[in-house]
């Protein structure tokens, strides 16, 4: 019942069912806690989430990989808690899966934990035998770019065994602009993402602004002529005001 309520977006009914279970002096099983975690993710109640976390730990359900993954999903965004839950998972000798590593790498990226993120990325491959997916690579590029390591991030992208998408190139472009990185590298990145998403005017604006900062007005004009779709012209004109 709780799982059904969670899937249907009825968190209140899920927790009402839990109260009935407690009144009947019954012990919630692992599946019930998974449903509760999903329900709480809809309600975004931190205190309830912490209570569920404490109960899961108390009854010894952390050895359940699916339950632990749901727990990490619920607390995703709270860096210390995600990494603490991950550490508890490893201490229980639970093998993390593909999804768990996405959360861990994302947390390392958001918290600026570059050293830890690189270590876990390598451990995922070498210790746990998990082949990185595009989402894992994206987390790594986000992390390296946000720390200003643009050249290393670009080298990382060029050595990826999968084709980088516009999210990855976008992270590189944003990081390079914030870090005031090499003009040549920023220009190269901008051109790569324009090739992937030629109808997105924002990338043309970034490249045009880059040329303008260098006084390369011929390039600015050439870029304006390149944009031949009316809606792109309007957006570029508005963005450059």
From TrEMBL:
It holds the Pfam family E_motif. InterPro entries: E_motif, PPR_At4g14850-like_plant, TPR-like_helical_dom_sf. Keywords: Repeat. GO terms for biological process: plant organ development. This is Pentatricopeptide repeat-containing protein. It comes from Abeliophyllum distichum.
